[in-house]
Amino acid sequence: MEGLCNNKTKNNRCSVVNYKLVTRILGVLLWIESGMFAICAAVSLWYHEKEYIDFVSSILLTLGVGGLMILIGTSSRQQLGRRDGYCVVGLSWVLFSLFGMLPFYLSGHIPSITDAFFETMSGFTTTGATILNDIESLPKGLLFWRSLTQWIGGLGIVFFTLAILPNFGSDSQQLFLSEATGITHHKTHPQVQVMARWLWTIYLTLTFLETLLLLFGGMSLFDAVCHSLTSTATGGFSTKQDSIAYWNSPFIEYVVAFFMLFSGINFSLFYMGLKGNLQSLLKDEELHWYLKSIGFITLVITVALIVKNGYGIEEGFRKAFFQVVSIHTSCGFATDDYNLWPHFTWMLLIIAMLSGGCTGSTGGGIKSARLLILMRNIMNQFKQILHPRAVLPVRINHYTVDTQLSATVMTFIITYMLCILLGWIALMAMGLGLTEAMSTAVSAMGNVGPGIGAFGPAYSWAAIPDLGKWLLAIMMLIGRLEMFGVLLLFYRGLWRNK
What is the predicted pLDDT for the residue at 475? Predict the structure, then answer.
């Protein structure tokens, strides 16, 4: 039972974390990653690239370490507890990034361990910030690996494993709850594995449909697949240094923009819509907030681009719509350099970075549901002043939000902003300017990708000091696992029985 001490350490002390079980599960996850390397090795072989050998080396190293971890945990027969689940999730993302950087590092295309880890963490967390200044110089195997990291990380590493491996049994529920740390968990099916497969099927379908449309728009098969993987994951890695602007195609821009928009919607709503419950999709209040936010910011920026920058009506709308959707969903693709836009639009984009997508989507940020609860609490506060005896519950989709959940939302938002503030100050101490430090901190926490100024959409993050890259990589992970899943690892109470 959780809270009872039934694990013994070497010194015969009680341990509240089942280290052997955690180690075994992490070993299984590393074997999953080696399978991902095998796919990329096949891509390299298909294009006759010598880098396939670097993927083979990565496979052998990952299989070896993963196998050793599985052996260490073989004798474990106990059920996964809540603390164990958080350990598995937090450590799995770090391990995946540490081993995931091997192809970049072994191939010599990213010779710095710091840069290789940063690029990989940016991939798995679907941030999309890059240190590469000549993306087209990378072989196709490595380009595909960058895209695949984002696609796997979009719905979650552990969630992906639950969809393809049915042998976690009763532990599946705890692993799911440990990784899906949002304020709501739309359980579309009582069995976690069945739910995972349904949601991944929807995810795969969106990816396939976008690939077909991008092919129709003139992309090559390789580019279409890579961009579909990263846009449905709201990741933002591109095969071109100029991102989507490389194709200079309004059709491609609209296709990518709408699929980013779809990927920022709660995937459970798609599932319920397919099952015939269209009202859940059409009447969802979080979805309304999300669409209104994108619509309002797009409208304001469109007018600004037409009036101040001389854009035509269609071009102004298209550029504004694409950039706003890309930033709001935390994807990070670009078709225009918004550093050249009126400065007040930068703040609107920062607001979009903070807002993010819906809960249960691949989008990052604070999430629309939390902002909706915050706004309704603010409105209730005004009403309470005028009517002190009134009972004013917060309701979302006709359900009452209990006091504890409201408090959790407030705590989350305050902690989220505090993490940004601390990261902002630390980056300025490392030599970054005020605007650059603020925008990169917000971007990393929201898993967005581009910032503002010297680290905007037209530039890479290569110039950031190494210490800053490690800090930003940690902030990416904190933002992706919605803070508490990572910060809990540094809380003494997780490791001690109280």
Answer: 95
